[in-house]
Specification:
One of its GO terms (biological process) is proteolysis. The N and C termini lie far apart (106 Å). This protein has a 7-stranded parallel beta sheet with strand order 3-5-2-6-7-8-9, with helices on both faces. Strands 1-4 form a two-stranded parallel sheet. The protein has a two-stranded antiparallel sheet with strand order 10-11. The protein has a domain of 300 residues: Peptidase S8/S53 domain (Rossmann fold, 3-Layer(aba) Sandwich). Helices cover 27% and strands 11% of the residues. Helix 2 runs parallel beside helix 5, helix 3 runs parallel beside helix 4 and helix 5 crosses helix 6. It contains 8 helices and 11 strands. The chain is of the alpha/beta class.
Length: 430
């Protein structure tokens, strides 16, 4: 989230290049937004999160085609240049009536959706994780803060209805960039309903961490069947406010990540709300590349292929590690248990072969002894051939050694050589 939204209660078109200079005409229904956020400027640089995840290699294998991702949030601005043609009408469960969910007043849902599906575009390095997937916007809130500046609570019944709606509309992945400490039965039942329909739910772990101790359970991330996502910075370290606990399954970029804003342009956001859609986008890539996998199998694949994180495996801070899109899509995982090693069978003894080997070993040892004796005899014969003639000539008298040359005389220095005058007590008086 931006600093302005940091207190929030973390409440089938082919992707083609889009000109960011194209005019946008986001038009929420009249009266739907009390204070709509204006357009932001375009950011041209490639964001650090896209560099870290390096999706170009992954897109050779999957771009998310054919997968619908539900974004249960503040709505999604379907008119953003990088989202045009990717956002379904959806549904508004916040305002009374039969309004669509494809508009946004505060940009939160638009940012989340853009991380999932934004098209590559000239003039910016920002792009979504699964550019050929589509978004089903489910609007459950309109503001991130109330008039007093406090977090605006989200109606759990609206969340539950939104989850069921997205499930029934065919979403195969649902992103929930919201969190809280309360376990609401309506939300719990809706999560179970989505799981029963083979929907993979991805949720933010929450942004209320103040130390290093394990925090209270964060819902909906703590529900069974939901992937809980923590936030890391560009150095791969956990964001200071990213919550810690067994509900963190893995982590993804969430510190100062670039994403779209309503109408046009981009902004930098912080929080697990924006780490979750990176995981939801990769889940869409996997579901497109491996359509036979069930939602639990996709979740296991995302966890099993995560890259090592500073906290080690199964850390309460980092879960299984850092999201790795390429491995998640390309590795050929198998649910089949590895086959056991065959029992060791000792072959029966071959006595004939053993006798044959022993005979050859004996023959080899004998041959070595014979060869050694021959070599010794030759050496003795050569020695005698030299010694006998010489001894015979001297009639076996001992030979005299040559006298050593006389040593040259040594020039001994005098007893004392003074390079400097002697001390006064040694000088003679004259």
């Amino acid at each position: 989230m931006t600093s302005r939204t940091a207190a929030v209660l973390t409440a089938l078109a082919v992707a083609v290049p889009v000109c960011m200079a194209a005019p946008a005409h986001a038009a929420p229904p009249e009266g739907a937004c009390r204070d709509p956020e204006p357009a932001h400027p375009v950011v041209t640089e490639e964001p650090w999160a896209q560099k870290m995840l390096d999706l170009r290699g992954t897109w050779k294998h999957s771009t998310g085609a054919g997968v619908v991702v539900g974004v249960v949030d503040s709505g999604v601005d379907a008119d953003h240049p990088q989202l045009r043609g990717k956002v379904l009408p959806g549904r508004d469960f916040f305002l009374v009536g039969q309004l669509p969910g494809n508009f946004d007043c505060v940009s939160h849902g638009t940012a989340v959706a853009s991380i999932v599906v934004a098209s590559p575009a000239r003039g910016t390095g920002f792009r979504g994780v699964a550019p050929d997937a589509r978004v089903l916007p489910v609007r459950i809130t309109d503001r991130d803060l109330n008039d007093s500046g406090d977090p605006a609570p989200i109606d759990p019944n609206a969340i539950a209805r939104g989850l069921r709606y997205a499930t029934d509309q065919g979403a195969k992945v649902i992103n929930l960039s919201l969190s809280g400490y309360r376990d609401y039965p309506a939300v719990r039942d809706a999560v179970a309903y989505a799981g029963s329909k083979d929907v993979l739910l991805v949720a933010a772990a929450g942004n209320r961490q103040t130390g290093t101790a394990t925090s209270a359970p964060s819902f909906p991330a703590a529900y069974d069947g939901v992937l809980g996502v923590g936030s890391i910075d560009s150095a791969g370290q956990r964001s200071g406010n990213s919550q810690i606990g067994p509900f963190v399954d893995l982590v993804a970029p969430g510190e100062d990540v670039l994403a779209a804003t309503r109408v046009a342009g981009h902004d930098y956001w912080k929080g697990t709300s924006f780490a979750a859609p990176f995981v939801a986008g990769v889940a869409a890539l996997v579901r497109s590349a491996w359509p036979e996998l069930t939602a639990p199998q996709v979740a296991r694949r995302l966890v099993a292929t995560a890259a090592p994180a500073p906290g080690g495996a199964t850390s309460p801070e980092y879960g299984a590690g850092i999201l790795d899109p390429y491995r998640a899509v390309t590795e050929g995982l198998s649910d089949v248990e590895p086959a056991g090693l065959p029992a060791v069978v000792t072959p029966p003894r071959d006595l004939a072969q053993e006798r044959n080997i022993a005979w050859w070993q004996d023959m080899s040892a004998g041959a070595k002894l014979v060869a050694g004796g021959v070599v010794l005899a030759i050496a003795l014969a050569a020695l005698l051939a030299v010694v006998l003639p010489r001894g015979s000539r001297r009639r076996w008298a001992p030979a005299r050694a040559a006298a050593l040359p006389a040593a040259p005389p040594r020039d001994e220095p005098p007893e004392e050589v003074f390079l400097f005058p002697p001390p006064p007590m040694e000088r003679t008086s004259g």
